[in-house]
Amino acid sequence: MTGRKQLMATRRDNVAHPTGTVGSGQLAIPQTTLEPMVNASVRPVQGQPATLPTGLVVPRRAALATATAGFLAACGETPSGSPVYRNALADVPRHRTLHLMNGSMPARFTDTGIGNPYHYSASHQTGHAAMWEPLFYFSAFGVGLIPWLAHDFVYNGASDEVRVRIRKDAVWADGKPFSPRDVAFTILTLADAPASIPFAADVRAQVKDAFTDGDQHVMIRFKAPSPRFVFDFLTFKFDTGLKILPEHVFRGKSLIDFDFHDPDAGWPFGTGPYRISRWTDTWKFLDRRDDYWGARTEFTTMPGPERIVMVPYGDENRLAMGMTRGEFDHSWTVLHSTARALVGEGVDGARTGGTLDGAYSPAGKPKAGTALSERMALMTYSFGRAPYGNIDWWPLSLWFDTRVAPFDDPAIRWAISFAIDRRRLVDIGQEGFGEATPLPYPNFRALEPYLEAVKYRLWEFPSNRYAPKETTKRLEQRGFRRDPEGYWARDGARVRIPILGHPQWADMGPVLAELLRREGFDATYDQPPDWLDRIRSGRATAWIYGHGGSIVDPHFTLTLFHSRNAIVEGASAGGAGGSYSRWTDKEFDGIVNEMEQVPVADRKMLDLFPKAMDVWLRDLPNIPLVQSFHHNVMSQVYWVGWPSILNPYANDAFWHLTWPLVLRKLKPVR
């Protein structure tokens, strides 16, 4: 078996799973039908009982009205030693509940009991985004900047001071007023925090002081002009933005050690419309607050779901089967083949509103042989059409710890880049529905002028070029030779590339490793449960990862590589998503510092960006691979109003900080 068939087999069979190596086909969900998968037995996930049935049953309405107790039984029992919640849990029917799966890989939440959003183990991606609210939202897919806890802001003429007007009627979930003091306190606390705290180094580099100005305004003074600060840090967009802390709780507490979790005290909480009512290692309940300030003051509407139930991610088969049975309303981003199998190829399966006629297809009762998406009303952002989702803000690269030899040498990183056939990576690893990327930026329309401004530099720095001869030339110049087994080695030591990744890259990761092996690198791909912790703590050598950065102009992505966000060995990387590569360059820092003094989307960025990319491309701190796509599947059995290409008010990812924008649009089917 050679060529494409062999690579396809590699993609299928050689994926490391949290519980061991997955045998042939367990993650290879059929591309044209789900029947073989759903009729197969389900292997238990580590720490979870295998409770899903073995056959596909198109559910009736009564069967879909799963009781809370039954759902919990399927998700795992409460572990001993879990927090004690003394209040009675309200009885919320299934059709008023939103069921989601996300979290840590070993079927256990790793953030249990961590309500402090700046704690090392904290994550807003496991439901907490429904509790926290920003001063402003920004929807890259929708209407742009949306004032929320603030009305507006005004910079002075020098852009070294900004005055933000805070809403008077916003209230924390414990009943205390939200005030400018909370904003100033959060900013100053981060400015004094260790660099391992997310955004601490960035805030400290820019902020001189923050204080209240009356009972409705907060003043922020900067060390130099910082016209981007409000957008970069006081605005929720995708996964970035500062969570404002309640000063009356956090005053005198350490951002490193304080967990902000006490069920008796009602911790954690934010100003948002949800509060945690149950939380263990295996499930989390967030119940809607009837006293939510936004609805009480008629500033906004109350979200549709009365309860959100979150369970940890454990296995894509289990998630896919749960979607087919109506047990989950929205999937974590799944493999392209899984999304296509679930929604059906070329089938819209979309419901725009109204009621159900006893079943689950847009036209009423399902007909025999219709696509699964029509029987179950499953959809993606692009319905049943390629790319079965939407492009994400998170273009993927092959990252390295650039302190570790031989990856500390730019020539070696370029040699590896030339060894990657991205056409085959997309064709096989992403089934032809992906897109190679030469730069660490998403293909968003707002970024097009900047990407065009550096396009000519790719002639000198062809970061997507497949050129094995260039690989050979650079390696031989550095003293490497092929060993008897065909692997590149120097002084008896091979170039080993142990790549780590998340299950969402189970389609691409093994193919990437195989492509590198074919060019003489001793490459492997693995998905250990602690993959991200290894990266953050400096215990990983190579990994697939994205860039939580730019969406309107190129500056924010570049801050990921600023030396202030490159943390010493043994400490977690901080900053705007973390400079996990630990790469630093003084010339690059100077250009990024100058960019920080340029307003968002200012024409001067067109001059500065090519200068920064000359340095970045010269050293190639990581190797751009492909654009990232969200293959998220949404069920309309219980809820309608999901974002789509026809209603692009936001991206649909429930792990992003803009998720509350979606919650307010969701309407129950009945």
Describe the structure.
This protein has 23 helices and 27 strands. It is an alpha+beta fold and 670 residues long. It has three domains: 66-81 and 92-126 and 272-389 and 630-670, Periplasmic binding protein-like II (D-Maltodextrin-Binding Protein, domain 2); 136-247, Dipeptide-binding Protein, domain 1; 393-627, Roll (Dipeptide-binding Protein, domain 3). Helix 21 packs antiparallel against helix 22. The longest helix has 15 residues, at 605-619.
Summarize the structure.
The protein has 670 residues and is of the alpha+beta class. The chain is built from 23 helices and 27 strands. Helix 5 crosses helix 6 and helix 21 runs antiparallel to helix 22.
Number of strand segments: 27
Rg, nearest Å: 25 Å
Spans of at least 5 consecutive residues with low confidence? 4-70, 72-81, 347-375, 569-577
The total tally of domains equals 3
Mean pLDDT: 82
Note the overall shape: globular
SSE arrangement:
Blueprint: H1 3-13, E1 16-17, E2 20-21, H2 35-38, H3 61-64, H4 68-75, E3 97-101, E4 136-139, E5 144-147, E6 150-155, E7 161-166, H5 180-191, H6 200-206, E8 207-213, E9 217-222, H7 229-233, E10 235-236, H8 247-250, E11 274-279, E12 284-288, H9 293-296, E13 307-311, H10 316-324, H11 336-343, H12 372-376, E14 378-379, E15 390-391, E16 396-400, H13 410-418, H14 422-429, H15 448-453, H16 457-460, H17 468-477, E17 481-482, E18 488-490, E19 493-494, E20 496-500, H18 509-518, E21 522-526, H19 531-536, E22 542-545, H20 555-559, H21 586-595, H22 605-619, E23 622-626, E24 629-630, E25 634-635, E26 639-640, H23 659-663, E27 667-668
Parallel strand pairs: 3-13, 4-10, 20-21, 20-22
Antiparallel strand pairs: 1-2, 4-5, 6-7, 7-9, 8-9, 11-12, 12-13, 14-25, 15-24, 16-22, 16-23, 17-18, 18-19, 26-27
Helix pairs in contact: 1-18, 5-6, 13-17, 21-22
